[in-house]
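Design request, tokens follow.
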């Protein structure tokens, strides 16, 4: 059984709704255009909440929710019906990544590499796929797009790379210098053998 198989599946949206706990709390909701409205939170979990709202909301609309005088948390409206709405906190933090045409095909590989951000110690991460131009890795620490990283494959020198995208707990890294096809074949063979 691989590490990927051992990880629990992410709960579905229906499962996350069932896990919500009933509450009775007032909050403030800031809508597009800068209008503030008082809302009642009726249930809550780590990923979102249900509110009673005096204004109609549209699915996909971005709002900010403030409770107990805390900093406003971004949220996305998932549904609205009869003065009630479901807000998703997680969706507000997802930024769609820019799709680019690949210069070469990526090869799925199981294995680990060493990764190091500037000024930090290196750590091992799973590499998910690899090409001459870059790789996709699972993350331990969350980098930002544009961050510089050093990638180390066993028995080879460090490669300088840039974070091109981050999505969930994975990131795409673009190598500064292309890996020669013969070296790429060697890397793929070694990663598959380990």
């Amino acid at each position: 059984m691989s590490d990927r198989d051992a990880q629990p599946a992410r709960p579905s949206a229906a499962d996350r709704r069932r896990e919500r706990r009933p509450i009775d709390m007032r909050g403030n909701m800031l809508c597009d255009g800068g209008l503030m409205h008082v809302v009642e939170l009726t249930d809550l979990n780590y990923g979102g909440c249900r509110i009673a709202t005096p204004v109609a909301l549209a699915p996909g609309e971005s709002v900010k929710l403030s409770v107990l005088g805390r900093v406003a948390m971004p949220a996305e409206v998932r549904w609205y019906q009869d003065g009630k709405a479901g807000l998703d906190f997680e969706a507000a933090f997802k930024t769609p990544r820019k799709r680019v045409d690949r210069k070469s095909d990526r090869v799925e590989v199981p294995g680990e590499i060493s990764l190091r951000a500037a000024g930090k110690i290196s750590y091992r991460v799973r590499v998910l796929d690899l090409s001459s131009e870059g790789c996709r890795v699972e993350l331990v620490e969350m980098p930002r797009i544009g961050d510089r990283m050093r990638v180390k494959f066993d028995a080879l020198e460090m490669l300088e790379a840039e974070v091109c995208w981050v999505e969930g707990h994975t990131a795409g890294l673009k190598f500064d210098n292309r890996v020669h096809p013969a070296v790429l074949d060697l890397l793929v063979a070694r990663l598959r053998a380990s």
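Comment from the thread starter after seeing the answer: thanks! Confidence is low (pLDDT under 50) at residues 1-17.
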